[in-house]
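Slack export, channel: ligand-projects

TW: morning all. Re-posting the request from yesterday since it got buried. We need the structure predicted with the small molecule present, not the apo form. The ligand is fe (ii) ion; the SMILES is in the block with the sequence. No rush, but it would help planning for next week.
GE: picking it up
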Amino acid sequence: MTRRLQERLLAIMDRKNHWAWAHLTGPGLTRDQLAVHFRHEYRVYVRDFPVLLARVLGQSPPAAVRSALAENLFEEQTGKLSLGVSHPELFLEMIDGLGIPRAAIEDESLPLEPEAHAYRTLLDRASAAPPWVVGAAVLTIFVEGSVHERAELLGQREAPPIEEALRAHPMVRHYGCPPERMRLARAHRAVEGGHRRDAWEMVLGHAPDEGPTADAVASAVAAAHAAWLAYRDGVARAMGLRQA
Ligand SMILES: [Fe+2]
Ligand SMILES: [Fe+2]
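GE: finished. pasting the full token output, ligand included:
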């Protein structure tokens, strides 16, 4: 039986999709369009994800939660539980594989859309302000999680073998990224199942099912979802995409 708070959060995750995703997983984008997308992802949350997790850890959650957060951030920042390379660096390896100069992604002087700044501000606030369980929910359930959260929890999502998944990845299939530059997907395959499990345990194990904390968690995740949708609208606009 699904707990009430879990159901509230899953109902939000069920809607973590955006119309521009069909463009990003299909052929036909230019390198410049891809660079706009990846620059935003990198600078809004990929590069600093370990730091955002560290802020939640810095709020002194209970011991079991400290371990889960420390393990997640150790892997994200060092990769030493999987391939020995940090996830932000693995992300840049994929950029190399796409033939996009790293400067087009990393250069701080290149602008981000206003909604990207707004989404990042929300992530900065949620990670730094108590209660820690709100920051943990926003980062580990919403940011790290996907629209497939419910199916994954129900064990209904079967991933193809990793080599097959890499060959089928849109960046490999449509944009010529060599599969060996997709080690980020390999690292995620190795550790992300554990991060998903830890995420739900941290939040559901420490937020009562009803009451002010549960409401704070649910409304922070709803606010993150709204800010993310606006952010994705902004990136789609900057890429010159139009909703069909
Ligand atoms: Fe990661
Ligand atoms: Fe992770």
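GE: first-pass observations. The mean pLDDT is 96. The longest helix spans residues 212-239.
TW: perfect, thank you
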